[in-house]
Write a structure and sequence with these properties.
3 domains; 22 strands; Histidine-containing Protein, Chain: A; 9 helices; five-stranded antiparallel beta sheet; endopeptidase fold (from Nostoc punctiforme)
Amino acid sequence: MLNNLEEKIIQLKNEYQVKYGFAVFDIEVKKSKKSLAIKGIVLTEKQRDEVLDLANLVVGTGLKPVPTIKIKILSDARQRNEIGWAVVKNKVVDLKSRFVSSKILNEKILKRIRCSQALKDEILRVLYKNEDQLLVQQNDLTLGWVNRSEVILKKKSLLREWRRGNFAVKGKTISLNNCHPELVSGSVVAFKKSSKIKNKRQISKQPMDIIIKEAEKYLGAKYVFGGKSEKGIDCSGLIQVAYKNSLGVILPKHSWDQKEMGKRVKLKDIKTGDLIFLIKKENSHKHVGIVEKNKDINLIHASLEKKKVIRQSLEKVFEGYDFVEARRIII
């Protein structure tokens, strides 16, 4: 049975190797007359669970004594398994969803595997090194590979700064009073990373408008899959930067992960700042945009069809997309 378990684990690692180009996955099975131990390192909690499922399937759940499980999960910041910290030194750095040697990496491949971007001075948690690339984690928990030359390595822990902000949670909305450093009698002042506010001024009588003002900065920016900057951005990237830069709220990078955050609201009850999730009618592509509700209801979104960030009436949007659901992140 144990030989079969080891074979299954090797097979699982090979599957990760093919899918991600490099597998951060090292599991060892040890058995003595009195005990069974499964030890090692994996990248994600899902990978750990798959190992445990294999063990239960192959070995069984009624073993005595109970097997010892010691599997480190690198992506779990609570376990403090990072090998260092890095600060982005370039204006924009691409994060890649799989490892591809820099010797063969080109723009065509990058376009296909870009999963996110990191901006200058952003702090990254370093989990692994391979060749001239680092496997890093952003503070929204996105994982990806970056070139070593694009960052400055730091030995000192930057965990507190890395986690700065309010993490959105599934099934819960965030109080604006709690997430914003300066909210006084219905007026909002600009959020600063340092939390030191200068040139205080009223932005709007409606506090949620600050999210719209941030999103408007990207109007006309070209559509870039995985992008998060004014030089190029995608639909979920726009949502993420609008919430983070305006209110310090950290959302996941990908749209259907964002769909799990906050609380669902009925379409008839949507208001400014809510998120609308959609499916493209012709190809089933997933999509998301930010609601702007005045006399009319508009959606600000990064449109792949228009190849840029646009403001569009909700009625027009629904001509090309099927409505999935609306979510409220902030109350």
